[in-house]
Write a structure and sequence with these properties.
Helix content: 25-40%
CATH class: Alpha Beta
Strand content: 35-45%
Radius of gyration: 16 Å
CATH superfamily: Gcn5-related N-acetyltransferase (GNAT)
Shape: globular
Number of strands: 9
Largest sheet: 7 strands, mixed
Order of helices and strands: EEEHEEEHEHEHE
Strand order of the largest sheet: 1-4-5-6-7-9-8
Number of domains: 1
Distance between the termini: 28 Å
């Protein structure tokens, strides 16, 4: 049975992602070509090592301490999915909050865990005063399909800082 809860220093530590499996074999990615989004054959494997998982856990802890919100899905004491919101609002009307991290461990994908965490993140974004959730989305076919299934669309306003940091990501938004 999966347990969902808001993450805090009481239930999350720098070691909480040690068993998390963030592996993705990418075969196709979306890229903007001549003003149009096209699915191109781009292949690589993305996999987090232990140091990478611990760095990401530290980022979550730091964000929580600075007023960010994070949510987790637990199975028998192991974190199997998480979503983190950066608390800073941005956009022409301060309408956006960034869904800065959103991942489900490989063995748990396709079970609705991401959908539930996304719903929790949307509620958190409203709590932070946002009217839209911003996503700098991984451009691979599978995550993009998942975001589209959740109702995300191309962002009306692009966060230039995030776009420069991750130029291959696709800027999406979700109207709250």
């Amino acid at each position: 049975m999966i347990i969902y809860e808001k993450l805090s220093a009481n239930n999350f530590s720098a070691l909480s992602l040690d068993g998390f499996v963030r592996r993705q074999e990418v075969r196709e990615c979306w890229r903007r070509v001549e003003g149009q989004w096209k699915l191109l054959p781009i292949a690589y494997v993305e996999d987090w090592d232990l140091d990478g998982r611990r760095r990401r856990a530290e980022t979550i802890l730091r964000s929580i301490q600075e007023g960010g919100l994070a949510y987790g899905a637990w199975d028998q004491g192991s974190l199997v999915g998480f979503a983190r919101l950066d608390p800073a609002r941005f956009g022409s009307e301060n309408q956006y909050v960034d869904l800065a991290q959103f991942h489900v461990s490989l063995p748990y994908r396709g079970q609705g865990i991401g959908r539930r965490l996304f719903s929790m993140a949307c509620a958190g974004a409203r709590e932070l005063g946002a009217s839209r959730l911003y996503i700098s989305a991984h451009s691979a076919r599978e995550p993009m399909a998942a975001y589209r299934a959740l109702g995300c669309v191309e962002a009306v306003e692009v966060n230039r800082i995030l776009a420069e940091k991750e130029p291959c990501d696709v800027p999406l938004e979700y109207v709250l």
